[in-house]
Amino acid sequence: MGEAVRSDSEVAAMLIGELAVEAGTTTRALRYYEEQGLLESDRTPAGYRLYERGAVRRVRNIRELLSCGFTVEDVKSFLAYLDADLPDVFSYSPVCADGYGVGAQRVAELDGRIAILTQLRDSLVHRMPWLAASDDSADEPAV
Q1: What Cα–Cα distance (Å) separates residue 15 from each residue in 21, 29, 49, 52, 94?
Q2: Is 92 within the bounds of a domain?
Q3: Separation CA 77–CA 74 (nearest Å)
Q4: Residue 2: which H helix or E strand, with range?
Q5: Which domain holds residue 63?
Q6: Residues β-bridged to residue 58
Q7: What global pTM score does this model have?
Q8: What is the pLDDT of residues 16-50, one digit of tens each?
């Protein structure tokens, strides 16, 4: 009792909660990805979202790209590759020309931020030399 009977075509599909668990995310994130055009679903007669089994890889890839600092808009440049094994795609640089360009732009932005932060750190250590000594003590073993 309480368990819905699914047709053969639905057995290969997953409900939103199942996909969230399999992909390690939330149903809210899945709805957001769908709103942004990164993920597609069908609907049951009752209106529940149904996702293909391959959506697990797609969602994991979306999450991986987001965790690397890409924005949702950036991830859209990888749409054609979201169902593939991303390490395989990335190892053949630049298979995905749009994604490669976005990646290069993100690296340049990070390099700029690192340079600014390094200058700020150096300026602070210059003004407060005792802070440099605390950096050296991090290399010493604890007694």
Answers
A1: 10, 14, 6, 9, 35
A2: yes
A3: 6
A4: none
A5: 8-137
A6: none
A7: 0.69
A8: 999 999 999 999 999 999 999 999 999 999 999 99
* Residues in CB range of 12: below 8 A, 6 or more apart: 52, 53
Instruction: Write out the two tokens for 115.
Output: 């340079």
Give the total number of structural domains in the chain: 1
The structure tokens listed for 87 are 């390490």
Give the three-class secondary structure for 51.
strand
User: 14 lies in a domain?
Assistant: yes
Residue 49 has which token pair? 């979202």
CA–CA separation, 135 vs 122, rounded Å? 12
Written as one letter, the residue type at 18 is E
Distance CA 33, CA 29 (A): 6
Beta bridge partners of 50: 15, 42
